[in-house]
Specification:
The chain has helices at about 30-50, 60-70, 80-95, 105-115, 130-150, 180-185, 195-200, 240-250, 280-295, 305-315, 320-325, 330-335, 340-355, 360, and strands spanning about 5, 10-20, 20-25, 215, 220-225, 230-235, 260, 275. By secondary structure, the protein is mainly alpha-helical. Strand 1 and strand 2 (about 10-20) form a beta hairpin.
Amino acid sequence: MSVRRDPRSPFYTFNFQIHGCRFFGPTKKTTRREAEAVERQERERAKALIAQAEYARTSLRLDDVAGRYWTEHGQHLAGTNLWGWLGLLLDYFGKDKLLTEITDDSVAKLVAWRRGHRVRGLVETTKLISPHTVNHVTTTLRKLFTRAKLWGVRFEHEPRWSKHLLKVPAERVRELSDDEADKLDAAMRDDYRPFFAFAQVTGWRLDECFLRWSEVDFGTGQITKLGKGGKRINVTITPTIRDILVASRGHHNEMVFTYVPQRSDTGTIVPVSNRRPLTYAGVQTEWRRMRKRSGVVGFRFHDLRHDFATKLLRETGNLRLVQKALGHASIKTTTRYAHVLDSEVAEAMERVAASRKPSRMKIRVVR
């Protein structure tokens, strides 16, 4: 089935593969017939993108550049909604817009257009999308420019990207309590358990946790892949991580983490042999459902990364070690977790005070 409706939303979504490339996204339609019509259009668009990949070598049309970028790089970024963000750019600029015609003014108007979009949900809402979400479409356009420069394209007036990124509130640090951890564990589906366990023990971001077996090297004891910003990240296969990987062996030839689909009409589980790779949208949906079942509130999937960092810092007291584990380029980013050491600092201060000679520490009370 290439179109389906999420129980939490009135809209259908499409999900299909062509020549090994996966395409998915919302149809914004509430009836199956309309959704299937959108899905057919998306299929034709996807076929055109793949067919145009070779042509894009000499074309600067946005549609051609996006197609080549998707074929060469984007389709391999497991777990992201890049296809949807590329679609937004094509919706706004039009497929015939030349990449070299996009200026600072063009990007400013794009950002203003995107800022007017509202959060989609089960019911009508007046809540606007966050600055972080707005920035996604800007950074996606920037990636097209960066990729085009690798192809030899030169821009006389490339947009000044930093001027168009909206300020994002400082990221909060949320730690999981033992009681909350127990509740989430009790509410967790067994087929999703290896994925969530891997996220907890590595502190990797959501899109970084979609592992391919080709990225796992049992010989060297390392997992290596591309992370945020195309930066190479790696983690040692500890005994705990090895157990997670071994439990996932044999489920899929390419992807490590999979799930057992449930039939939407009966709610029954299909045979394990029909396991499918986890997707970015699927994990987000199951996370929301699991959180609701557990009763844990105010805890996002990304907070698993914060939880990992705070517990690692509390265990080691070493900010540099935490910086390396999280893959932060600057120690300044890691210092957001420094509050974890406040109690240790207070205890150290008290030990220093206690070590001084009593005569020097005697407090005289003046009356």
